[in-house]
Design brief:
By secondary structure, the chain is an all-beta fold. The protein contains no helices and 28 strands. The two termini are about 30 Å apart.
Length: about 325
């Protein structure tokens, strides 16, 4: 369903269900104070499985003294009663802060949850079957990452991989062993120092992240094959977000971004431009009827080139040392 779920702590702990197309509030989830309890924040992050199950986590600044908790709703109906599915320290005996990140994948009884510790190099994955009450916690150790590398942004990649990010650290892709918990960095991208919350869209190999800058902005990257191509940048307002908090989520060919203190923005994903190379020329092709636009800078301004594919471009047309960016825009 085209729903967007948002956690709020003003003026009470709540999870709102919005119409993802219009932003219209539809209802609230049942968040009973007798069930959803404890933590520095009682509810902090939220994630949904592919079939609409809902998971929400609290925030604890020390998993040894205050348990990190995850709650489960079978769906986003207001009558659903949550159940506590995890309570403890995902890092074992290691003291760390948990609850700034949460991701989910899978459906039915085959769902995986992923979270990152704020201050160290630990992440954790919970493999569980809620109907059968079977859960397995895997603490993933990634010694070749930076400290706090996974503290503000974490997202599943393809297979047994995930991406992690925090302000001041590199964007890293980690391969992990689902039996031993050994994690190995397989990709490091250092260009986006200010990026924090992230999400990965496997259908298109896209990664989006919020950069805490002046003003804050959203960057859309193509990370095919572990390399990176910056596709677009969109700007937020510039209210302070000193904690770098927020969430980014892909769904149904759209990207939803919450930047704390700056609101929620939804973007529609344009069709992907395909490129082929031959004898010093580049042929650009795409599906549908869109304006192909060009700019020497990723942030624009962009000018229209053609409105039907294909388009043949000769890189020699650019002056030495310059660069060019293409994008598709709906025809007005």
């Amino acid at each position: 369903r085209d729903h967007l779920l948002v956690v709020s702590r003003t003026s009470s702990n709540a999870i709102y269900v919005l119409d993802a197309l219009t932003g219209e509030p539809l209802r609230s989830l049942n968040v009973p104070g007798t069930v959803v309890t404890g933590g520095t924040f009682v509810v902090s992050m939220i994630a949904c499985s592919d079939d609409g199950q809902v998971f929400a986590a609290n925030l604890t600044t020390d998993g040894n003294t205050t348990p990190f908790k995850i709650y489960h709703w079978a769906n986003d109906d207001s009558t659903e009663v949550p159940t506590l599915i995890f309570s403890g320290n995902p890092g074992g005996g290691t003291s760390d802060r948990w609850g700034d990140t949460l991701d989910a994948r899978g459906s039915g009884v085959d769902v995986d949850l992923l979270m990152g510790g704020r201050n160290g190099k630990l992440t954790a994955c919970i493999f569980f079957a809620p109907d059968a009450d079977l859960r397995r916690l895997l603490t993933i150790i990634t010694p070749d990452a930076e400290t706090a590398n996974f503290g503000l942004g974490i997202t599943f990649g393809r297979g047994n991989t995930f991406w992690g990010k925090a302000t001041g650290t590199g964007l890293r892709q980690v391969s992990f062993d689902p039996e031993t918990g050994a994690g190995t960095v397989i990709t490091t991208i250092t260009n986006y120092n200010n990026m924090a919350p992230i999400d990965f869209y496997p259908t298109r190999n896209l990664l989006a992240g919020i950069s805490i800058e002046t003003p804050d902005n959203v960057r859309l990257l193509d990370v095919t094959g572990g390399s990176v191509l910056e596709l677009d940048t969109k700007f937020f307002s510039d209210f302070p977000n000193s904690n770098g908090a927020g969430q980014a989520r892909f769904g149904n060919e759209r990207l939803f971004v919450l930047d704390a203190n700056n609101g929620i923005v939804a973007y529609a994903l344009r069709p992907k431009i395909r490129a082929s190379f031959n004898a010093g020329t580049v042929t650009l092709d795409w599906d549908g009827i869109y304006n192909l636009q060009f700019s020497p800078e990723a942030a624009g301004p962009y000018t229209n080139l053609v409105n039907e594919p294909p388009h043949v471009f000769e890189p020699a047309q650019l002056s030495p040392g310059s660069r060019g960016f293409f994008r598709l825009a709906p025809i007005q």
